[in-house]
Amino acid sequence: MKTLGALCGLLLSCLSLSAAVYVGIQNLNGHPCVSVSGPANTLVALERSADLRAWQRLGTNLLDGAPFTFTDERFTSAGGRFYRAVLLPPPVPTGLAATFEANLQTVNLSWSVPVGTHETHLERRASNEADFEDLGVVAAPANHWQDGDLESGLTYTYRVSAGNGGGQSGSSSAVSVAVPYLGTPVWQSAVYDGSNPNAPMVRLSWSLPAGTEAATVERSSDGGVSFKSIDSVSLPDISTEDSDIEAGKTYLYRLIAEGPIGDSEPSSPVSVAVPYPLAPTWRSAVYDGSAPEEPVVRLGWTLPAGAGAATVERSSDGGASYTPIDSVSLPATSTEDSDLKAGKTYLYRLIAEGSIGDSEPSSAEIVSVPSLSAPTILGAASTFDTNVRETRVDLSWTIPAGAGCVTVERRASNESAFEELDDMYPPDNYYQDTVTEAGKTFIYRLVASNAIGDSPAAEVSVAIPVPAPLLEAADTSTPLEVDLSWSDDLDNETQYELQRINPGGGTVSAITGPDESWHTSAPPMGYTYTYRVRVMAGGVWSPFSNEVTATPHLDQVSLVTPADGATGIGRPTTFTWAATPSAYKYRIEIYQGSTLKDSAFVTAPTRTYTSAALVSVTTYKWRVRACTQTGTGNGAWSDWFTFKTR
Questions:
Q1: Per-residue pLDDT tens for 108-119?
Q2: What is the pLDDT of residues 190-215, one digit of tens each?
Q3: 3-class SS string, 374-412
Q4: Domains of the chain
């Protein structure tokens, strides 16, 4: 309630208490006559007070654009003389109605506007809220409102109140409206389109319910466990394409209508299976061993439309498992596999690579890689070359087809491990081994190989004979001795047997250690002996060597008396000399100048001789030599001694 104006006593004047309402008072036949003027449709009450504290309402009226008057016939001076006009709020609105308009997706409100209303206040509370909130204000005499700020699935409760300059009425009775969810879209089609192999896709189309503005397209790739939005399509479009797909997968699609007040429930899903691309087809799969250094399996194929590459897989376990060995992009449609092993069978298969994924594997092609044949040994023989004194083993063989190398290995028969000697490359098909360990048997092994493996081994045994040593000429420079030496060019000799063949027949043998020399002393003098030697290596004796002869000789005699340069030697003259070992007899010669004056043989062990053939005061020279019984191997003549007789 608002006081608009007041007058004091019977003052005939008009006081303006507001911008629009005026109160006036005048005397009418001794009674106060109060007039109130103001805007139309203004509800006012006239009140009187004697003390400006307590007020008595005299009446109410609705201004209709003209002033209304009131004559206070009960006026007494004691009754008071103050008047005021009070603005009154309008009554509570009635007839509030609310309806949901599906096409417009709005709630339409209407009500009856009570008298004295200048404006209607609207309030709303959603079912997910606790309190009413201001919705808007409508100026009288309008009596309707359209609420488009809605959310599907909620219930909204509305109430209104009337207001003017005098205040606000109470709230009307509340009305509620349930806002339904949007209707779900309806599928028209959902199909896989592979007509363009380079751009396969799923094509989707639908129809939308009334009040819908757009559709959200969702997709599930896990059987409907979860969906993800892939597109939002606004009217007038009602279709889309999904190209983010993978071969061999099944997708579920569903639609959600989008409206001004929210989204619909999801539609029922549709299922679209994306097929695998076609597998490649084989053109060829063959083994090519024409280049032994790099045999290969050559593979060729044809790709289906839409495929950009092919993955080549290989199995070496009969198809139990496959491993990718190459990925070949167009325009190439072939490859080579050089990672091979001889004697193995491989299975190959192809997988086409397309824009949406890979094809199923193709059928398998089987390629067998042949094993190399073992070399055929043509010859294996040992030979001792007397010129260079070497034992050689000569090997020869046939080279198997496809072999790039033949490895020669060797082991002794009493050993288990082979030693690699050399790699021989075609066209060479022979090998010469120099052996210094005679008396052994060696096993030779030949293995052919190429880039993909080895052949079985071919083996042959070769017994290495022990060659006869080479006996050097005997050294008899030392009296009474024969020194022998030889060579055998072996590394594994253990002992020698040296034989001496006597002139009259029979032999004398001596077993020596591994030294290649022999020193023999004091054999019977006066003879020429024949010597030979043989060597043992590997527990085997060689043949006897060449034979050499040796004649040991006696030592040179040392003269004693008469001493060299002696004078006054008496006659007959006695000559003496030192003993010579093994001498059978001695030969003494006495010269005067160059004339032999006396000579004789003196049988050992006698070492003196007395000559009566010399004359006085004459100078002589003499010498002696030791002699054998046979005359072979006599010692050298002694040095000359000179003397002079008296």
A1: 999 999 988 889
A2: 999 988 878 889 999 999 988 788 99
A3: CCEEEEEEEEEECCCCEEEEEEEEECCCCCCEEEEEEEE
A4: 2-87 (2.60.40.1920), 94-178 (2.60.40.10), 186-273 (2.60.40.10), 281-368 (2.60.40.10), 376-460 (2.60.40.10), 470-550 (2.60.40.10), 559-645 (2.60.40.10)
